[in-house]
């Protein structure tokens, strides 16, 4: 039996195309070939369980070996093997997937899909690194003859009688000059570790030396000996394939440690398991967030039937959950997945919304089951929840019941609870409930204390995402306004239509304004004399809420560059009812008036951390001389 022929493809030579477009990363030849070998072993197991193969199964395994001198890499399996006819069909007609045939044949078998690769060109990725590829194979079928196939990367191939004596297949790659880097123990180990830690079929790559206890020496000290052992790649347990009911917390934590050896324990996890309308299993962990957020991205690993595909899961996982860790496995995603595939595939969108839904359900459950524990975790999960509420309408709808506000007294409220809490004290004359917040309780303490004196509550919005969260919440909630606690003097933060009279005459008001304008002498600061509670500070410096928010957004790259380029402008409110103001008016000379005004203004700046550099030094010196 010897036959020459031409591989049936429409393009004259498909290999350059494969090399160029299909795979960006040439190491994946190994992923494709080992996957094929593993599939072949799963198939023979299946055939045996269906009673269609009655021979000895033996220990099913895949083996990878290399020969530096001969410049070959060999992938061997004891799977179902191929007859010459099957080689022609499955390998030569590359547009025709062997999997399709297999599905046809065994479509009644319940989990046939699981053990079958999808239509594709996987095998031909071998030519990315080889000048010649040889197959030696012996089919499981009764009376099958060994067959071989050799092809040098042109469209010519040769099928002949093979040399294999036991069931299964060897794929021998004659590595080309450009790819000799793969002829290395280290390199191959690295690639195999990356893709096949969880392969369902035992995967052996040579041997490794281990030391074992070997009795005691003559002084009674333990002795050790070196032993050569099979180097097995896939020792780890893929817990996502097991039923949640069979797993304990320790199993999840242990698995997390295996995936991310140097990470702190996760906060909690979600076991994903769907089989309709798409197949998906996995475990997603909520990590303890560190400051270095970028470092924690791309930690979710995507698998297809326990073979690693990629850790760039954008499109599969919603953007706001990109900081989660863990594993997703879906046979509906082909091994040679590309970015454009992910974007176009309908299943991927469904997977994305399924994950969003699952995460929302888990959070709702944690919130309901043990609210104090949930609140304790809020510092870590709050960022996900807020980000999700901002970016995904569907998530917002669910999260509005478990998304929390935290106030400056460390109390937590749901959106609804909070409205109830502050409604009475914080409704303005137009019926809007005004929520006050601080981004920095230490810096804005004077404003917070002053708000508390009026029985107002102050929310803590001190994470980087809160800027956007505040605007989003305000849009969402009806008749609710959010104001930073230092956006105005406390009396005016919530306009209740009550007017306090101030004690100054018109002339005195003009005079005080003049004194302060002269003393401050900065165009960015606009002075106003206000009628305020005499107990309030004599001078308060504020920035308009709208202006400040626009500037904050511009600073974060939110596109508000028009506002970003505007100079800062502040309002200086002088408390016309404060003792100090009368004192200034009564001072004997202008220089004393100016000094007092300047001192009061600097104190206001100081309380907000706005007094720095030379101004701060001048303030300290002036204070000393005043004492
Ligand atoms: N080691 C092997 N043992 C038995 N049959 C194999 C082996 N390798 C490949 N084949 C057969 O050749 C066919 C084509 O393989 P190829 O990798 O090109 O595509 P696939 O595995 O069907 O799809 P994909 O790799 O894209 O998931 C396989 O479906 C299988 O029938």
Automatic annotation (TrEMBL):
GO molecular function: ATP binding; ATP hydrolysis activity; ATP-dependent protein folding chaperone; unfolded protein binding
Binding locations of ATP: 32, 36, 77, 82, 97-98, 169, 339
Keywords in alphabetical order: ATP-binding, Chaperone, Cytoplasm, Nucleotide-binding, Stress response
Keyword Transcription regulation: no
Coiled-coil positions: none
Family in the record: Belongs to the heat shock protein 90 family.
Protein name in UniProt: Chaperone protein HtpG
